[in-house]
Structure formats: C-alpha cells, structure tokens
Amino acid sequence: MRISLNWLKQYVDIDEYSPEKLAEKITIAGVEVEEIIHMASGSNLIIGFVEERIDHPDSDHLSVCKVNIGNEIIQIVCGAPNVDKNQKVIVALPGANLPAKGVIIKKGNIRNQESNGMICSLLELGVDEKYLSQEQKDGIEILGNDAPIGDKNPLAYLGLDDVIFELKPTPNRGDVLSMISFIYEVSAVLDKPIKKSLESISFNKLTKSSYLVSSETKKCQRFAVRGISNIKVKESPNWLIQVLRSCGIRSINNIVDIGNYIMILLGQPLHMYDANKLSDNKIIVKEGISGEFIALDDIKYNLDKDDLLVTSSNQLCCLAGIMGSKSTEIDNNTKNIVIESAEFSGVQLRKTSRRLQLFSEASNRFIRGIDYTRSLYALDLAAKMLEKYADAKIIEEIVTYGNYDFIPTKITLSAKKVNDVLGTNFSTFAIASVFDRLKFKFNEFDGVFVVEIPSYRNDILIEEDLIEEIIRILGFENLQETNPKISTFGGYSSIQHKRKIIRDYLVSNGIYEALSYTLESKKSIGDFCVLNENKNCEVINVLSPMTEDRMYLRQSLIPSLLRSVNYNNFRKINDIKLFEISKMYYSNLEHEHLAIAISGNINNTKWQKGKVVDFYTVKGLVTGILELLGIDANRYSFIRIENDNMYYHPGRSAYLVCGKKIFGVVGEVHPLMNNKYDIKDTIVCELDLDYIFSLKNSITKFEAPSMYPSISRDIALLVKSDVMSIELIKSIKKIGKKIVRSAEVFDIYEGQNLESGYKSIAINIVYQDKERTLKEDEVLEIHNKIIKDLEDAFNAKLRS
Amino acid sequence: MEKIINLDEAKKLILECKNLKQLNDLRIFYLGKKSLLNQSMSKMAKLSPEERVAFGKYINTLKQDLNYLLDEQKNNLEIIELNERLQNETIDISLDGDDFSSASYGIIGGIVDEICNIGIGIGFSIAEGPEVENDHYNFEMLNLPKDHPARDMQDTFYINDNELLRSQTSPVQVRTLLSHNGEGPVKILCPGKVYRRDDDDATHSHQFMQIEGLVVDKNITMSDLKGILLLFARKMFGEKRTIRLRSSFFPFTEPSVEVDVSCYNCNGKGCNVCKNSGWIEILGAGMVHPNVLKMSGFDPKIYRGYAFGIGVERIAMLRYGIDDMRHIYSNDIRVLSQFKKER
C-alpha cells in the first residue's frame, strides 16, 4: 500500500517531521514504512514557454529554443524530438540539481550555440518510468495550458512534489490498507488531531433500484449494488490521476479510477459491471459452480466448487472479490453500470487466490477483512463522483442483502492488568490518553476500562491486544530491562551432551562441521541408504517441490557430503575432512545420523605429504567416538559388508554391529559412486546416533597396573589373505586368558616373497600376571600352545 | 729430585690440541705404557724407602694433574665438536609445523552453541523436536487456524494434508508446554532447522536455523522480556549495544515486537551495515498469546510468558559480514577454515 504524504497532509498535520522521521515513528508504532519514495526531485526548476524553435545549424537532431521564463527569455539547446514552439515546459536553470540524472546544470555552449539550461522530461526528474507513457519517456514533458509561466515549482503544478510511503502492514492490520484508517493511525502515533473527516453525502433524487440481490452462501454475508445510468467513459480529472499515481496505480478511465480511488480511501473494494451486459436483473452470489471462468485478463480459470461467484441468471459475472468477467467488462461504449460493494469471506478468497495464483488489490483487502460499515457509504461516494466526473444522470437507490448493523466489541481491562503484563507503572490517565488518541470510546471506573473497539480495528479482540495498543502508542522505551530471575537449572540433556562430545572430538581432530540441505534430489535419493533396515521403504517427498534437486527427505547424509567433497575438489582442494549430524527420514521416523567423509591425505605438513586416507582412518575416528561415549570395544564389532553392495567398496567396508543390530557403516565409496558424484577415493562412515545414544556407558573400574615384570614375544604367521586378524587375537586371548595381558598386530605383509593369496601377520604378545612374577617355562608352555592352536585353527604357518 | 715432565709445557701442548685424535696421542705420550712417566716407575725399586714415598707422591700428583688437564681439554673439544655437529643439523624453522590444528564448528553450529551456552548460564534448558511436524503443532496450536491470512507469512513445505516440514521451531515450544501439564516454570531454548518455500539466493534459503526462546512462569512481564533481549544482544554483539523494540505482529504472541540492536559497526551513527538507520533488526519477540497458553494446558490467569525467535543465518551474516547466505551451505573448506577461532 502506497500513501502520498501530500494527501496525508490534508488530514493530519505532519509538517514538523521530515519524511524519514515520520516513517521511523510510524514504523516503530507497528506499521512498517518499507520504502520512502520521492516522486520527483530537482532544484532550480521553472515553468517556461517556448517562444521560438529553430533547427540547430550544426546538428540534425538538436533544436535551439527561445524560452520565456517569466521575466526574461533565454536560449536553450534541446535534444528532445518533441520540443516545439508554443509549448509550456519545465526548465532546469543553471545550478539546478537533478539527482535522478546525477547532474548539476551549467551554462554551456553546445556546438557553438549558447545554452542556458535544460528542458526536462519527467524521467530526468526521477519519476518512475512505470507511470510514464512511451511518449513521456522519449521526450520532454509538455505542460497544460493552465501552467503559469515563471512558476518556480513545476513539480507542485504536476503534483509531483510528493513523497510516498510504501507501507508493509502486518497481516492483522488490514485496516491500514485504507487511507482513512491510516489517518487514524498517524493521528494516534503523532498525537495530532484529524483535520477533516469524510464529507457527508446526500442526493436530491434517487431512482428506485432495478436490481435484486441475494447470496446463496454463508461466505457472503453482505452484498449491495447500485445501478447508475447514462455515464460517459472518459479520462479522469488531473487530481484523480495524480492521487492514483501517488498510490502506484495507473489511470485507466474515469469509471475504473473512481473505483480504485474509493478502495484506497475507504478500504472497500468496488466492482463495476456494464449493466447492459448482465443477463438478468437478479444478481446472486453463489458457490458450487464448476467449469471455466473467463476473466478480464482474457485468461480461462478452472473453477473449484468452493469458489465464490457473482452471477446473473446463468452468467458468471465475477470471481467474487478477485476479478471480473470478460463478459461484463466496462468498455468505452458503456453507458449504464452496476456498482457492487460487498463483503466476501477472506478465508475462501485466500484459498481461491492461492490456488489460481491470482492476487489483486481487492482480494488482498477482503482476505485481511474489510470494514462493512463503510460499504454503503462507498456506493454513495461512487455515485457522487460519477455524477461529477462521468456525467451520470440516473442514480438508483442501493439494494442490499444482509445485515449492516454494527455492534462494537467491548473489552474490559484494568490498569493493574496492563501494568502486570508490561511491568510498568502507567497511570489510569496515561492509559486513557492512548484510547483518546486512538479514538476508541471508553468508560473508566476505579482503574477499570470498558473499551469499545471501532469497526475498522478487527484485530483487537482481547485484553492483550489493547495492552499492545497502550505500549506501542506510549512507547517501548517505557519498559524496564529487568534482569532475568533464575529459578531453573539450565543445561544440556544427556543426548545433547553426547552430541557435543562427538562434535568437539571431531573438530579437535581436524574434521570440519558441515551443514547441508535436508531436501534431497531425485537423482540421489536412495543412495547409501544402508542403515535402513526396511530396505524397500518408501521415500517421502514434499508436495509440489520447488525443484527436482529439493524433492525428498533425505535418508542418508552421504550424498550431501560427497557433493561437498566434489565442490571442494572442483576448487582444487583435495584434502577434505567433513562431518555432519542431521536428521534422516525413513521407516516413518526421524533418525539422527552422523556421517564423516574424508578424502586426500591426513596428517600433512604443507611441505611433506602425510598418510593417504584409507578405511582405517575413518575406522579410527569411529572407535574413538565410541570410546569417548563409554561404549567398550567388546560390545560391538565390525563385519564385512555384502559382496554386492552398490554404494561401498565390498572389500573395504564394514558394518558396525551390536548383537544383530547394524548401527553404522564405514568404508570406501564404491568406484561407481565415485563416478556418479565425480569424486576421487573418499572414505566415509555413517552412524545411527539414535541407537548409539541409547546405549549405556560402560562403567569405569580402576585397576592398578601390575607390579610384576612382563615378558614380550613376537610371532609372525603366514595365513590365507581372507583371515581376519581379530580372529587370531581372539584365539590368542582365549588360550592365554590368565597371563596374556595384550596381543596386538604390529605388521601386515603381503606380496613379494609370499605365495599369492597369503599374508604374513606379525603379532606382539605380552605376558604378565597381576600377582606374581611369571616363570620362563610356564610362559613358553602357553606360548607354544597358542602357536599350535593358531596353526591348527587357521592353517597358519609360523615364520622364522 | 729430577723433574720427569715439565708440567707447564705439557699444559701448553694439551691446550693447543685441536681435536680428540691429537689429544689422544698426547695422552699416550704422557701416560701410555711407553711414556717417560711409566718408564720412570721402573726406577722406583732402586730408591730408598723415603725417596720412594716422595717419588711415588710426585708421580701420582703428576698423573693426576695430567689426567685433569687431558680430561678438561677433552671436554672442551667434545663441546666444540658437538656444537659443530649441531650447527650442521640446522633446519629451516620458518617451514610450517605438522598439522595438529583443529577444524572449525559449522558457522551456524558455532553460533547455536554460543547462544545455548548463554542461555544455559541463566537457567535455560535446550529443547528439541521433530522437523517433520503436524500442521496441528506447527500452526493450529500457535493460534494460526487453517486458512488464517498470517499463514502467508510462512510459505510451507507440506508432505501431506497434515504433515509438513516445520516452518518455525515454535512447535517445540508447544510440545514442551504440553509435557509440563500446566505447571511452570518453563524456560527453554529451541534450536533447529526450519523450512520455508523461498528460492535460495543471497539472503534467502529454503532451509535455515532458528533458535526460539520461551519462558513461562507466574508474574512474567514484558520488561523481563526486554531485559533478556538486551542481555542476549549484548552477549552476541558487544556490551555497548542498546536495543529498540518496534511493534509487530506474530499470531502466537501479543504484544509482539521486532527487536533492533544499535549498529555495532557505527555505534548508531549510521553506516552501510545498518543502511544508515543506526539500527539492525535481529529478532522477533513477544508475550505468549493467552490462546497459546490455554491450548497448551496453561491457565493464562496464573501464568504468563514471553518468547523470542532468532534467525541464526542472519546473525552469522551480520557478525562476520557474510554477503551471501549460500556460502554457509557450501561446505567450502576455504570458508569453514576461517571460523576456527570462533567457539
């Protein structure tokens, strides 16, 4: 909604405020002024009269003009194609500042012809081109005959010495979509009286209405029309064109303009029908109609049975409150019209507008709620204006459907409640002053107010709404800044704490915390979704997605991270360490996942490469996390992934299992996925955090280190390549139970000098007892037993 | 008694030694098997007992002195040699050290942590809830019935008629209130991802992070709200900040305000950060609407509350001067690595 300050000035005294200050005051009080627009600007302008125009002797497009500016005649060289003698024009004299053009006009010499100023177009004066015709954009502005030569304020003559506020009212303040209600707002905010009220209207003679109206739906409670005959469609008067222009509306013709003007003034949308095009004199609001509606814009809209329509016999005259029909449109030959002033359900209009993506100034007002106490006045004002500006001869009485009585809402509010809620000390007098400023009628007894809410403030329903009025009018600076009272223990929950531990650990280890989008693409949904036990579960999509890239709720974090790896690779960053914690969606539930993606080298210094990341890099991070969370290594294990897994390298990937539950996956990205995501060797893991968070902490039990000496023995075993070292270790520990303190792999060798399909595993075994010194021969006995067992169970050969 | 060795001369020779090899040769010369000293020992037998004692003493002293001198010089030479070796082992200390540097928290994650930590210090708990929400919790329980025009403030991703991607974290407030069975106090911060149908551009994102705060207790006032807003604004933007409230509208609070903080860049004088207004909009807030309390099982005659909502991306962009929101979601290491010190 645009408001002209020149127009506003007629109602409220705002002269003491600059536009900026005024905008700030109005905004702080709750109606945001989104933009301050100067219609046109320029200094040192004057209205001149072109007495003589000749072609410039040295140019094929310039003219040399003699311009009378009242007390003298000056020469100006002008480049506009439309300049001619006997025109009244706007002259920028030397020294004039034209901000839109970014120039200051100087006396000059253009191809040997003296030029003492510039004849201006409106574009050069900063008028938005959307209000200008092609002619106006291409040439200088030619003023009317009534323009006073020598007048130093041509912008005022044109009504362009105006400042416009673009208002952005909140959804509850539909009232300020009318000038009259906005005046109430400004008057209250500034504490200034309203200088003039709406004129009262009476008619000498009204003809009996030739129409019947009614509504067959609850979605239209009030409907009124008035027939007017013998009108003449023509151009609107200047003042009306200017007012509409200042409100951002282009003039069409006098009939349409009058409708728009009344809508802006009163907030009541009007609709005009060509009376001769109506099929019948019964005008009825209906719903439940299906089929097509051809609107004013020549577009066919498919109707829904809930849509509201204004009908005449079987004719669909108007998609109520939104747009009229082509069939009843006013045209240049229209003689007789019917004006409609109604109240339609905002809820329904919002539905229809959204469905058809068809929003208008009218529907916008109905959606927020109009003030029906102005509906009939709007028809009176329309008739008066049509009489004056469209030569209307026959004016009919208004015919109405519905009840127009208004019973104001009354709210009881005590000063105590006001101060309790706000934490203030406002006196009864101060509170009363707010209601006075807002023009709310009230009674007050012993600090208790009974307030009558005027019809246009449909946003005020309860005490708290009035309390808001009080504090916004008196000013939020009246609120103290109380220190918080602390009566609760704050803190993270156990899960939040665990999540923080994981993030701290990963960040400390140089893994960056990533953030990516929940909505996954059609192309990637389903990829890497291996933690979902129900492999065939449906994917969840959003209704009418904005793009194919943001369509589904993701089921795995890996695609997002791989895209980030690709993004970085593409920018020549090859060492990438990323993790993300986020919610996934499958099996009809949200699941919190952690995923890590690592690519390139780790432990680099800039001038010497570290280790190329592999499965063990990420496995180490995973076991590190589980250790921190108090989940002992003996409570879970890594098992090989399926041979036919499509997302992970089958030989270099593992599931994390606890009992039968798969709660994580670690591994190298499958080469086919590398191709799909355009990345190089990347190791990832994805963990089901919900499950991990549900596991209890292992209890910490102190054990004093043994005081007795230990014996260390290394063995190297030749085994088949597919033997997993963990099995050997388990076996060693099982046999040496009492005296084996540790058994750890310290070397793996495959390749040269070894039979293919075999590998050498070197294991260090430490023997130690807690309570005594071990004897050499008892260790030897166990050690031999261990070796024998390994040879038998794994077909291992001891290497010397 | 004849002098076997001129000690002064020996000292001179020893001190003149330039390396351990020379020194060792001297040691052999003076103290070796074939040395004068050793040879003279054989004369001992011929001496009278008195002379033998005196001679023995002389020889011993001489040996001690020589040994001392030789050892002393050996030490000196060793240190010199060590120093030479160490000089040869010099490395380029200007090269970078090994990479033990930690990474950074996400830009958004870091700010969420920061805000939560401020809140925890003054008694807030952290509440979380589902991102796939029911219309009921996301809207209706927040005083936004179906087809309410204020729903247009948030264009929402629906999954079906009833389920949607939450457009705000307010449903977490509702769920928390319900879980309290009408008994206060409730004091929570609700951080979380929210979703709206906005095209991604420099200042919009279809997904963003929100943190809402909610306090419900007896005798809560709007001045308490202003107090906590000032506290957060100062913790986030500096202790010299002031705040300004502007009247606004949210369906779930009444009165409602937008909160501006005085510009940290120009201290309110006006600059390009604050678009010359001196103020920067940072969050929305208000007193919990009685309908919301009622629907969540709290008696608005007994309890009142306040709530506020912060857009974390906006805070990040303001604080770090990030001009395009998409940087936040790029996971570009060159971006992330700039935030290591921001904890």
Protein architecture, described:
The complex is a heterodimer of chains A (800) and B (343). With 800 residues, chain A is an alpha+beta fold. Chain A is built from 20 helices and 42 strands. In chain A, α7 runs antiparallel to α10. In chain B, a hairpin with a 2-residue loop joins β6 and β7 (253-262). In chain B, 38% of the residues lie in helices and 19% in strands. The interface between A and B is large, with 87 and 83 residues.
Question: Which topology of the largest domain in chain B does CATH recognise?
Answer: BirA Bifunctional Protein, domain 2
Order of helices and strands of chain B: HHHHHEEHEHEEHEEEHEHH
Strands across the major sheet of chain A, in which order?
Answer: 28-31-32-38-37-36-35
Strand fraction of chain A equals 25-35%
Overall geometry of chain A comes to: elongated
**Main pleated-sheet profile of chain B:** 7 strands, mixed
Describe what is shown at a glance.
The complex is a heterodimer of chains A (800) and B (343). With 800 residues, chain A is of the alpha+beta class. Chain B folds into two domains: 7-88; 107-339, 2-Layer Sandwich (BirA Bifunctional Protein, domain 2), CATH 3.30.930.10.
Salient structural properties:
heterodimer; A: 800 residues; alpha+beta; Phenylalanyl-tRNA Synthetase, Chain B, domain 1; OB fold (Dihydrolipoamide Acetyltransferase, E2P); Phenylalanyl-tRNA Synthetase, Chain B, domain 3; 6 domains; seven-stranded mixed beta sheet; 42 strands; 29% strand; B: 343 residues; BirA Bifunctional Protein, domain 2; two-stranded antiparallel ribbon; 11 helices; 9 strands
Ordered list of secondary-structure elements with their pairings:
The complex is a heterodimer of chains A (800) and B (343).
Chain A: E1 2-4, H1 5-9, H2 19-28, E2 32-38, E3 45-55, E4 63-68, E5 73-78, E6 88-92, E7 97-98, E8 103-104, E9 108-110, E10 113-115, E11 118-119, H3 134-138, E12 142-143, H4 154-157, E13 163-168, H5 179-190, E14 212-215, E15 220-229, H6 238-246, H7 254-266, E16 270-274, E17 282-286, E18 291-294, E19 300-303, E20 309-312, E21 315-319, E22 323-324, E23 337-344, H8 346-356, H9 361-368, H10 375-389, E24 394-401, E25 409-414, H11 415-422, H12 428-438, E26 441-445, E27 448-453, H13 463-474, H14 494-508, E28 512-513, E29 519-520, E30 552-553, H15 558-570, E31 576-586, E32 589-599, E33 601-602, E34 611-612, H16 615-628, E35 637-640, E36 648-658, E37 661-669, H17 671-677, E38 682-688, H18 689-694, E39 711-720, H19 725-735, E40 740-749, E41 758-767, H20 776-794, E42 797-799
Parallel strand pairs in A: 14-17, 28-31
Antiparallel strand pairs in A: 1-13, 2-13, 3-4, 3-6, 4-5, 6-11, 6-12, 7-8, 9-10, 15-23, 15-24, 16-23, 17-20, 18-19, 20-21, 21-22, 25-27, 26-27, 29-30, 31-32, 32-38, 33-34, 35-36, 36-37, 37-38, 39-41, 39-42, 40-41
Chain B: H1 7-16, H2 20-31, H3 36-41, H4 49-88, H5 107-121, E1 125-126, E2 132-134, H6 135-138, E3 163-165, H7 170-179, E4 186-195, E5 207-217, H8 222-237, E6 243-250, E7 253-262, E8 279-288, H9 290-295, E9 304-311, H10 312-320, H11 333-336
Parallel strand pairs in B: 1-4
Antiparallel strand pairs in B: 2-3, 4-5, 5-9, 6-7, 7-8, 8-9
Helix pairs in contact in B: 1-4, 2-4, 5-10
